[in-house]
Amino acid sequence: MSRRYLSLALCGALAAATVGAQNKDKDQNKEQERLASCGVVMSEVLNVPDNVPQEVLDRAECVVVIPSMTKVAMGVGGSYGRGAMVCRSGPAFNGEWGAPAMYAIEGGSFGLQLGAASTDVVLMVMNKRGVDALLNSKVKLGGEA
User: Fold this and answer.
1) Residue 55 has what pLDDT?
2) Which pTM was predicted?
3) 3-state class of 1 per DSSP?
């Protein structure tokens, strides 16, 4: 039931953002398209059988969806993606899912590497320390050898 609620919350937020957008400004259109892409990615993830265990989703305090995160490297590498973050409401992040906030992830690396890739990223933040790290500081969300 929580998966359906999260999917409905994302779709509802997308619908509210679409209906509420009277001005067809270029930036607003980009954000609407980004929210639509996030909704598609989350829907695809939730519809894959046995992909995300229900208990993991029930414990998640925030979910970050980055459609088409791009990584490019030739000795020096970089990654970049824009998407949305949805957190639970309440002081302990245990209430209903809230409205989405636009989010960007970027990073760099150095070493023996060559190539390019684009992938959809779904991050589930499981505790208050993770939420604080995402909201209050710069955080590196991965590593490579």
Assistant:
1) 82
2) 0.70
3) coil
